[in-house]
Amino acid sequence: MTDQTQADDNQPPGYVPSRVWTWDQPSGGQFAGINRPVSGATHDKALPVGRHPIQLYSMGTPNGVKVTIMLEELLAAGHSDAEYDAWLIRIGDGDQFSSGFVEINPNSKIPAMVDRSVDPPIRVFESGSILIYLAEKFGAFLPTETRKRTETMNWLMWQMGSAPFVGGGFGHFFAYAPFKMEYPINRYAMETKRQLHVLDTHLATNEYMAGDEYTIADMAIWPWYGSIMRDAYGAQEFLSVHEYRHVDRWVELIAGREAVKRGRMVNRTFGGPETQLLERHDASDFEKNREDMVQARGGRRA
Ligand SMILES: N[C@@H](CCC(=O)N[C@@H](CS)C(=O)NCC(=O)O)C(=O)O
Asked: 146-257: which CATH number, 3.30.70.260, 1.20.1050.10, 1.10.8.10, 3.40.50.720?
């Protein structure tokens, strides 16, 4: 094949990467507007601070939900020091690029957290790091016995490394890219199905990810793989998710937990208003300040 016929096969046809990449225009597709090739703040704005020891700055995406599930589980287990304020960071509006947010997460991604129960306060970013931090701080949901702890960490790290292929790979090209491209959709559908098969095989003989105990590994994996099994990207038929019946069993098991039901509502900005609690500052917010209730009061929080 000559260079020219190869270039004709490229997408768009004739595209040949330049010797040096330059940022000429947004790449197109959903969310392209917030992408930049540099890091750092775009505007000066401090983060709000509430009255609780733990301040969370997040949004109800799968990475955000991992942490709100953990905090709700800790509270349900009686760790009252896990009380938290959850502030909404609207990533579509660029809130992650405020100077205050960049100070606590130079990577400008939700979730990020500040533990103000210690002096000076500790910043924590990366959802996996936040889960481990909270598990160690409260001595919960991370077994201490070496074999079980290692298995929990194995699956937690598996999630952190694997989910970007599902979200940034499959989800992006299947649902968000400006046009459909067979090559990346095939590549990432293959990888997504391989990962679902990994989970299915493991969950055939294990009740939870780390064995017989519910841990931060379940909390990390469920938001991503639970949603790909149920509704993410409208791709359930495409991926034949019905094939993964052990994953299906586990998805229902985790979804049935009361703390999970609460955690998935926090900082959620999509779905029905009755499923959203935009900000959480008190346990009573679930009864008083759900978005359907706030809207019925003309936008006023109780
Ligand atoms: N590895 C990170 C990923 C965080 C992440 O990708 N967050 C997304 C939302 S799910 C985000 O904040 N995106 C905003 C942006 O890219 O500007 C973690 O697990 O915390």
From this structure: 1.20.1050.10
pLDDT digits (tens, 9 = 90+) for 83-133: 999 999 999 999 999 999 999 999 999 999 999 999 999 999 999 999 999
In the chain, CATH 1.20.1050.10 sits at 146-257
> Which atom from ligand 1 is nearest to the alpha carbon of 61?
10
Please state the atom number of ligand 1 nearest to the C-alpha of residue 127.
Answer: 20
Q: What is the pLDDT of residues 141-181, one digit of tens each?
A: 999 999 999 999 999 999 999 999 999 999 999 999 999 99
Please choose from 63, 101, 126, 160 the residue to mutate so as to test ligand 1's pocket, defined by most ligand atoms within 8 A of CB.
Answer: 63
**Which residues does residue 208 pair with via DSSP β-bridges, in sequence order?**
211
Strand ranges in the chain using DSSP code E only, listed in sequence order = 54-58, 84-88, 112-115, 122-125
192 alpha carbon – ligand 1 mean position (Å): 19
Whose structure tokens read 């105990």? 213
Query: If you take atom 12 of ligand 1, which residue's CA is the nearest one?
Result: 109
Phi, psi (deg, nearest 5) at residue 114: -125, 130
Spacing, Cα 147 to ligand 1 middle (Å): 30
Return the CATH architecture of domain 54-138.
Answer: 3-Layer(aba) Sandwich (3.40)
Spatial separation of the C-alpha atoms in residues 103 and 107, rounded to whole Å:
9
